[in-house]
């Protein structure tokens, strides 16, 4: 949901925290993909390629159509959609940051654990059990136990749990139908080595950054390694950042450093 980007919207769009001088530089666009939040929730087979077309229609509508105008940042399934978008309009991409994502989902944890994890995504559980599991899969233990940066909750983990409960109580914005459709879209995402080679050629590898946390238990680190390799690797100009001790939700788990990293990459690629 677009609320997941509230910290970066504050940092870049409103000039708070670590980037007080950046609010006059950037216009930020955050939105809900189909199936969640305030977007429509059709009952259909969702795909990352179709959601990339949704994104393209939106940015065309607001008039962001110039060459090398878009700095695209995608996390998890958003990173998969970002790959599809870059293949649609490579000439319009100024920078492409692919965070906690992969070219396709493959098994890195063993057959039995992989099957159990997939079943657990859809198996009904008590809310407190669900929250404990998603916190473990999304974030590093150190971040969860740190005091809440805003000062309203005892820990970051408590704030995330409160936000998650609020989201799930919004039965119109967060529906089981939309959630399942999105899970399946991420599971079906598949970009071959040949397609990623084409993406790297057309966008320019000096404009692409792959970022992954070593404690990511949602999209495990080998996915980031394969993505980096098949895009062409560091030896051909791509930027790879491996974040030690951090999890899947890097915009939260690694907020200040993440914001600085994105800001510097945007500035560097803007000058190309």
Detailed description of the structure:
The protein has 272 residues and is α/β, with parallel strands linked by helices. The protein has helices at residues 6-13, 48-62, 77-88, 111-122, 127-138, 141-145, 156-169, 176-188, 193-203, 221-231, 250-253, 255-270, and strands at residues 70-75, 93-99, 208-213, 239-243. It has a four-stranded parallel β-sheet with strand order 1-2-3-4, sandwiched between helices. Strand 1 (70-75), helix 3 and strand 2 (93-99) form a beta-alpha-beta unit. Helix 2 packs across helix 3.
* Sequence of strands across the biggest β-sheet: 1-2-3-4
What is the number of helices? 12
Q: Based on DSSP secondary structure assignment, what is the total number of beta strands?
A: 4
Spatial shape = globular
Question: Rg, please?
Answer: 18 Å
Report strand %.
5-15%
- Helical content stands at 40-55%
User: What is the structural class?
Assistant: alpha/beta
Tell me the series of helices and strands, N- to C-terminal. HHEHEHHHHHHEHEHH
- Write down the overall mean pLDDT: 91
Which helices and strands, and how do they pair?
Elements: H1 6-13, H2 48-62, E1 70-75, H3 77-88, E2 93-99, H4 111-122, H5 127-138, H6 141-145, H7 156-169, H8 176-188, H9 193-203, E3 208-213, H10 221-231, E4 239-243, H11 250-253, H12 255-270
Parallel strand pairs: 1-2, 2-3, 3-4
Helix pairs in contact: 2-3
């Amino acid at each position: 949901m677009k609320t997941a980007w509230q910290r970066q919207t504050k940092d870049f769009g409103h000039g708070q925290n670590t980037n007080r001088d950046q609010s006059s530089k950037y216009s930020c666009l955050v939105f809900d993909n189909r199936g969640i939040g305030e977007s429509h929730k059709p009952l259909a087979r969702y795909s990352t390629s179709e959601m990339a077309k949704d994104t393209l229609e939106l940015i065309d509508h607001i008039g962001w159509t110039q060459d090398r105008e878009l700095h695209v940042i995608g996390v998890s399934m958003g990173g998969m959609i970002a790959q599809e978008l870059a293949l649609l309009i490579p000439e319009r991409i100024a920078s492409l940051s692919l965070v906690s994502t992969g070219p396709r989902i493959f098994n890195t944890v063993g057959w039995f654990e992989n099957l159990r994890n997939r079943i657990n995504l859809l198996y009904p559980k008590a809310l407190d059990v669900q929250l404990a599991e998603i916190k473990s899969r999304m974030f590093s233990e150190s971040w969860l136990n740190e005091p809440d940066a805003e000062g309203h909750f005892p820990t970051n983990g408590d704030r995330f749990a409160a936000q998650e409960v609020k989201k799930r109580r919004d039965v119109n914005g967060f529906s089981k139908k939309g959630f399942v459709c999105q899970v399946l879209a991420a599971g079906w995402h598949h970009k071959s080595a040949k397609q990623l080679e084409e993406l790297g050629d057309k966008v320019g590898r000096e404009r692409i950054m792959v970022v992954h946390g070593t404690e990511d238990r949602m999209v495990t680190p080998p996915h980031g390694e394969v993505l980096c390799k098949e895009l062409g690797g560091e030896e051909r100009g791509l930027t790879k950042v491996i974040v030690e001790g951090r999890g899947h939700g890097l915009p939260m788990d690694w907020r200040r450093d993440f914001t600085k990293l994105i800001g510097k990459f945007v500035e560097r690629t803007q000058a190309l």
